[in-house]
Amino acid sequence: MKLKSVLRLAACLAASHWAGAAAAQATGTAPQCCGLLPIHDSSQKSMVGTAANSASSSIYFTGYEGNVSEVYYPTVDTLATSNMEFLVGDTAKTFVDEEKLQSWAVTQPDPKSMRWQAVTSNTLHNWRIIKMIFADPANSTLIQQTTFQALNGKTVGNFDLYLLYKPYLKNAAAHNSSSSVVSDGNTYLVASSSDSAEYSAFRASLGWTIENGVTMVSSGYYGVNDGWQDLLGGNPPATR
Fold this sequence. Notes:
Elements: E1 5-13, E2 47-50, E3 60-64, E4 67-72, E5 79-90, E6 96-98, E7 103-107, E8 116-122, E9 127-136, E10 141-150, E11 159-167, E12 177-183, E13 186-192, E14 198-204, E15 210-211, E16 214-215, H1 227-231
Parallel strand pairs: 1-10, 1-14
Antiparallel strand pairs: 2-3, 3-4, 4-5, 5-6, 5-11, 7-8, 8-9, 9-10, 12-13, 13-14, 15-16
């Protein structure tokens, strides 16, 4: 199979505060095809970026409430991703917080750069996430450098951190396909458009949690058996 066009999304996770990434594990083909009708994230935005003056990068991104919302590739009017956010739970299984619903702040460290710092937190549940988000000028890759902090005497070992990623390739999420692919020792979440002309590949720099020899990642149908359903149940909100 020849890959005609590839978008890469890389989450760089800070080891000093990292609790471990995991997604509910599934094997084989996801059942109950083919999910709810796809929808976009909120039209409100708190950040927008690209790699300025780069001949090697075709990434454009937006964000809202401290999270990456749309990623456009290879042109500014072609949607490739519609939502990417964390879900935070405790190891005692007493709560799962959706990052988008928490307190948040977004700043631009350098007004001459379209690099953004986003902070989300829930002090009652004793966690904070700090992210630096920018487009790589060397290739079509969106990078999110993430630090997870445990607060008020808690340690990272008290938490589980999950990543929810929603591809939307070529403005048509309804016919995207997805799978987990291992390459050079790294596990990628890979999505492809219906005509197999465009792909997105997502990985975490620290790797994913492995339990009993199984990497804890999965793909599912939106609103039926995706990561949201695995962790929270019920239909996702209208802006997912």
